[in-house]
Amino acid sequence: MPVTEVSQDVDARTLTITAEFAAPIERIWQVYADPEQLGKVWGPPTYPATFVAHDLRPGGRMNYFMTGPDGDKFAGFWEITAVDEPHSFAFDDGFADLDFNPNPDLPVSKNVVTFSAIDGGTKAVYVSTYASAEALQQVLDMGVVDGASSAINQIDELVAG
């Protein structure tokens, strides 16, 4: 399994997930740069994502929805704030309605994803920062650790295929 560590820091309002992939940085970057590949791994296995907008550059926006096994849909968005291809990118991640309007009742997180080379593979560190400890707790209660970990754990299979 690629996810090697998950940590939460309530005082810093952060959730950090560390993963290691059996592929070089450039290949892992392509997972995020290609909306079709990203859709296969952004969301738990039973909730694949469909990216209807994908603009991985500063100022860009990504809109997506995840579809559950019963056809239920959940939407979200990324607002890209920084890109250093293929080493890192940053974005604000939020929940949305099916027209991709932000849901004000759910938190928006600031995210930084960094990739570094390790022994022929890639180490990825995903850091999400929330506006408050309560916002962090809200997404923890919603199952973000299990959901994100199961999503990230799909990347090795995708890049091997």
Automatic annotation (TrEMBL):
| A matching Pfam family | AHSA1
Organism domain of life = Bacteria
Tell me where in this chain the Activator of Hsp90 ATPase homologue 1/2-like C-terminal domain is found: 22-159
Homology family: Belongs to the AHA1 family.
- Mind telling me what this protein is named? SRPBCC domain-containing protein
Organism whose genome encodes this protein? Skermania pinensis
